[in-house]
């Protein structure tokens, strides 16, 4: 929900509003008209939503065009709340309200007792204020302690103490639902709401009014009501009562990203990465996440949230930043050696089957290795790695680890035939700033002035990087990241041996 992009309209009282030609529309009418306009212009309707274009969004658009209240049903971490919050962007940017009204009455048709009284007193001079669409959204996380007063309203003892009688409608303190009048109201995790509290929403969805204790109130609420819920076969804490479910116009199932590219795009969008994480590592994280979701060791009813992949990517980036801080590596670029750091972080984000108790980290570690092996096959399966294998044919070893900088790893490895082709296969489209160059690099490496101008340093040459690589922003860190994927892939395909101790990995010898 973004802030205003323009100033509110000029009218400040009812006569000016009528003279401006303003036409009153219902909330669902606004949403329908603005959705149709965006469709006609080919604009994005639900910004920030990834992977739902061909599945969830068409159903959602039909529900909104039909004017339905709706339930989004899906496992945790599928973006239900994010999707609901984008609906506010389909409202008009500014809408008029009676100034000071608690429930946002429209000046043309006030419904609460206060605003009707003011309209009778002021007539065409009724004060008008303007509300931005970002202020027309209400949300409540359903919790067992939620009361009818929270959602609908209750008697305000302060107003009674001020001298009003208990029969005066103005003694009512309105709850979240009426305060979201003429906007969008969302109930997250609706089945967690006690059944007796769900009953209070029946009139809101059908008769479009509310009841507060013994008051003869009939407020014709104008709102779009949206709820989210987990599938009932998993959410044993409660259910949506049948009469309430019947009153929702549409039930829409959400899902986790169906394509690997969508999973990667989602991580890129949501993760706050403190270091550069190459594309192939993000793909490993995405593959890892999908394997965890499909694993028989994991309770599939609970789901594996998109936050799992986001947390993994952030932890991997943090591991790279830690290495850079302790070794002086610049820039900080994540490598395969940073992947294991994510496993302990992620353990609490997965619900395992009871039979796997005590083996949680073992299961995650195994699935992570499978993800690395699959990425290796997809990215480097057809690449000639004989030059790299030849380096170890005579029994040589190369040590790496989460505190070994890229320059040291490449120096230990030495020149490797075919490294340039390996990096081309991995590809790294993002542009990074060229590393700072030290005087004498170009001359010492026998590089021309043109090479130096392109950012090609001695370190680039030693790493097998071409002038094109340097111009594209590739660094020794990228070369080391590519080398580690190749080394780990060769080990996982039984072409190379590996010894591990905490913080250190030694590759070497044929398997």
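^ Assign residues to that structure.
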């Amino acid at each position: 929900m973004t802030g205003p992009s323009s100033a509110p309209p000029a009218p400040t009282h009812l006569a000016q509003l009528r003279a401006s030609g303003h036409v009153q529309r219902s909330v669902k009418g606004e949403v329908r008209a603005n959705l149709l306009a965006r469709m006609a212009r080919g604009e994005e309707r639900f910004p920030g939503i990834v992977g739902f274009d061909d599945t969830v969004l068409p159903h959602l658009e039909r529900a909104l065009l039909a004017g339905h209240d709706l339930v989004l049903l899906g496992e945790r971490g599928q973006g239900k709340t994010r999707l609901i919050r984008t609906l506010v962007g389909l409202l008009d940017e500014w809408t008029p309200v009676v100034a000071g009204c608690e429930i946002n009455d429209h000046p043309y048709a006030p419904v609460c007792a206060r605003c009707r009284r003011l309209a009778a007193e002021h007539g065409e001079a009724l004060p008008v204020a303007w509300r931005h669409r970002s202020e027309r959204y209400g949300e409540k996380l359903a919790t067992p302690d939620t009361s009818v007063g929270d959602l609908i309203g209750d008697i305000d003892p302060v107003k009674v103490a001020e001298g009003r009688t208990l029969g005066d409608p103005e003694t009512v303190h309105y709850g979240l639902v009426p305060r979201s009048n003429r906007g969008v109201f969302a109930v997250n995790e609706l089945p967690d709401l006690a059944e007796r509290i769900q009953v209070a929403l029946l009139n809101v969805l059908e008769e479009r009014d509310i009841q507060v204790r013994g008051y003869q109130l009939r407020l014709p609420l104008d709102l779009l009501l949206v709820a989210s819920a987990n599938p009932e076969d998993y959410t044993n804490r409660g259910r949506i009562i049948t009469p309430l479910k019947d009153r929702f116009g549409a039930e829409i199932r959400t899902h986790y990203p169906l394509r690997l590219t969508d999973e990667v795009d989602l991580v890129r969008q949501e993760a706050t990465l403190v270091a550069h994480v190459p594309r192939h590592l993000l793909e490993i994280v995405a593959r890892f996440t999908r394997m965890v979701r499909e694993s028989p060791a994991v309770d599939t009813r609970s789901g594996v949230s998109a936050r799992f992949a986001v947390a993994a990517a952030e932890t991997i980036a943090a591991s790279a930043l830690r290495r850079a801080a302790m070794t002086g590596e610049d820039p900080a670029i994540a490598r395969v050696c940073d992947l294991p750091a994510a496993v302990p972080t992620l353990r609490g984000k997965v619900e395992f089957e009871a039979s796997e108790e005590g083996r949680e980290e073992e299961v995650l570690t195994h699935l992570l290795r499978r993800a690395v092996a699959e990425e290796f096959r997809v990215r480097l399966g057809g690449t000639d790695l004989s030059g790299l294998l030849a380096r170890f044919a005579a029994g040589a070893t190369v040590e790496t680890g989460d505190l070994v900088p890229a320059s040291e790893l490449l120096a230990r490895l030495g020149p490797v035939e075919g490294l340039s082709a390996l990096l081309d296969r991995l590809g790294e489209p993002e542009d990074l700033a060229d590393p700072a160059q030290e005087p004498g690099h170009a001359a010492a490496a026998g590089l021309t002035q043109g090479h130096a101008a392109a950012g090609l340093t001695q370190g680039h040459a030693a790493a097998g990087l071409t002038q094109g690589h340097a111009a594209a922003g590739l660094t020794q860190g990228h070369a080391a990241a590519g080398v580690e994927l190749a080394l780990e892939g060769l080990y996982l395909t039984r072409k190379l041996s590996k010894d591990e101790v905490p913080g250190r990995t030694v590759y070497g010898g044929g398997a």
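The two ends are 56 Å apart (CA to CA).
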